[in-house]
Design a protein that fits this description.
mainly alpha, single chain
Length: 98
């Protein structure tokens, strides 16, 4: 485990304990997911991305929805679920085109 990745995870977890507007909490959760992904914590990363996905889908934020879908695809790819990864990547591309 990289020390800077662990520091990022700790910092983001601390930040999520503070009171922020919901949109800021979701962004923090997304970046926590990325830090967890780079730390090899794929299950916890996916949980963060699913939370972000639900929010961005409900709020029609297609740019961030695309980023979230891309990262979910990246997790699937890293776990050798190639068909699932392709599905996420295709959905991400569609959101970036909106």
């Amino acid at each position: 485990m990289d020390g800077s990745t662990r520091q990022a995870i700790d910092f983001l977890n601390l930040s999520l304990k503070e009171k922020w507007p919901e949109e800021e909490n979701i962004k923090l959760a997304f970046y926590l997911g990325k830090a967890r992904f780079w730390n090899g914590e794929y299950f916890k990363a996916t949980q963060c991305f699913q939370r972000s996905h639900s929010y961005y889908l409900a709020n029609s934020d297609y740019n961030m929805l695309g980023h979230t879908l891309y990262m979910m695809g990246y997790v699937a790819f890293q776990r050798s679920f190639f068909d699932t990864a392709k599905g996420y990547f295709d959905k991400a591309l569609n959101n970036f085109r909106i």
